[in-house]
Design goal:
Blueprint lengths: L10 H38 L3 H5 L7 H21 L4 H6 L8
Helix pairs in contact: 1-3
């Protein structure tokens, strides 16, 4: 219980614990990077289809920061297109209805 003083660990025990925690942290960080990469690829696949890598002209081995930038630029492009009013080809056809042929 709480009445007995805790045994102090020796220096080798502490160093072993530190090394174990360092390795655990590296593994956890790598797992988080892999999960994030999979999430970004999933979003790119939703936006560009199954041939997303070919469409974007990149390799599937491209680093995570580059993949993120494609995801952000795609989002900005879609927002810009929506705000400009020229969202779809059909809506752009409506702009030319009043023009007569020569």
């Amino acid at each position: 219980m709480g009445f007995l003083p805790k045994k102090r660990r020796t220096l080798p025990e502490l160093e072993e614990e530190k090394e174990r925690l360092t390795v655990e942290e590296e593994v956890t960080t790598k797992q988080a990077e892999i999960a994030e990469r999979e999430a970004v690829i999933s979003e790119l696949r939703k936006k560009y289809g199954s041939g997303w890598a070919k469409t974007l002209g990149i390799s599937k081995l491209t680093d995570l920061s580059t993949l993120r930038s494609f995801l952000v630029s795609a989002k900005k492009g879609l927002e810009k297109q929506a705000y400009s009013g020229g969202g779809s080809p059909v809506s752009r056809l409506n702009d030319y209805r009043g023009i007569t042929k020569a």
